[in-house]
Amino acid sequence: MAACLRVSRRPPASLRRGGANLHGPSSDLPIVASVCAVALGACGADKITAPPPPIPTPVELDWSAIPGTSGATACQPTISASMSGPVGSQLTWMGMGFHVEEGSYDQDFDQAFTQRFWAGDGLIAGQSTSSNSAGFGPGMVHITYRFTYTLTTDSPRLHTDSVSTLCQ
């Protein structure tokens, strides 16, 4: 319920002659009534609207690669992915590939291999995962990982992202 403020056109007491009220109480009534009518009219049920529509939130993936140190046997980088987006959005791994600059090695792998690499079928919004289950030869190795996946927010579109690292 709206509360109306009393609006007075009376001058302050210091300006009144002899403290007498030059304006009668009935002179305030039209102003008070007008203010209340405007306030109540602005709060009418037909003036209330629904909340604004939600702003679409895109799915975002953050990738990182921490290079492993190349020992006498192999280099094993740690690859991490984290997903943010609307509640209920989900990523499903579809495939992956490795590209190694040294030796021009380039190989694609299927969905089953990718799910073994990540030890899971995919991610949901708010989740993250990491893996270091791929080893490469000793020495300086520049590796690019490619990942393909689908998202429930725009299925069946296939997405591809890549992340690179250097083992030394």
Can you describe what's shown?
The structure is a single chain. The protein is mainly β and 168 residues long. It has two domains: 13-47; 60-167, Immunoglobulin-like. The chain is 13% helix and 35% strand. The strands form two sheets. Strands 3, 4, 5, 7 and 8 form a five-stranded antiparallel beta sheet that branches. The N and C termini lie far apart (72 Å).
Output the CATH topology of the largest domain.
Answer: Immunoglobulin-like
Mean pLDDT: 79
Largest pleated sheet: 5 strands, antiparallel
| Portion of residues within helices | 10-25%
Number of helices, counting only DSSP H or I runs of 4 residues or more: 2
User: Tally of extended strands?
Assistant: 8
Give the helices and strands, then pairings.
Elements: H1 29-42, E1 60-66, E2 78-84, E3 90-100, E4 105-109, H2 111-118, E5 122-124, E6 128-131, E7 141-151, E8 158-167
Antiparallel strand pairs: 1-2, 2-6, 3-4, 3-5, 3-7, 7-8
Could you list some keywords that capture this structure?
168 residues; 3-stranded antiparallel sheet; disordered N terminus; Immunoglobulin-like; 2 domains; single chain; mainly beta
Short description:
The protein folds into two domains: 35 residues; 108 residues, Immunoglobulin-like (Sandwich).
